[in-house]
Predict the 3D structure of the following.
Amino acid sequence: MIRPLVLLPDPVLRELSKPLERVDDDVRKLADDMLETMYDAPGIGLAAIQIGEPLRMLVIDLAKEDEPKAPQVFINPQIEARGDGVSVYEEGCLSIPDYYAEVQRPDTVSVRYLDRDGTERTVEADGLLATCLQHEIDHLNGVLFIDHISKLKRDMVVRKFKKLARERPPSRLAG
Ligand code: GNR
Ligand code: NI
């Protein structure tokens, strides 16, 4: 099921997501909803809080349009180590539509997580996967990519989205 996206400045995006206690069929169903919502958007990653579920879970698919889908589910992800180098990437966020800005992050991360079968795994990520994992894990902690840009730029984008939210009815009433 495609679920509505939570948009800036909804305070839900600032919530601290809670660890999952088990990986069962309900969790896998949520992962499928997240993937469906991400593909529909379309985006390359999605955290559960972006569909209003404050749980420590995220999905990523970095396959290009002409490649087969490559969905990945990360449950209770933890950054175990960060590289010394810095990578700069122009980031966007499905919760902040049509806004993009360069963000600096560690160029590599080692992430421990449970997959959709509940198996513990570790990924050594670099490139776009490293950036995307850090962007999504930030969401689990109520952090947005605009928190990594200048205050001037951040204030501008927050003001714009507050104005848009005033002009738009709550999504629950949309349609
Ligand atoms: O679709 C997305 N693209 C993206 C581009 C650069 C860095 C991070 C991302 S994640 C984003 C989807 C999203 O908002 N995930 O939380
Ligand atoms: Ni995002």
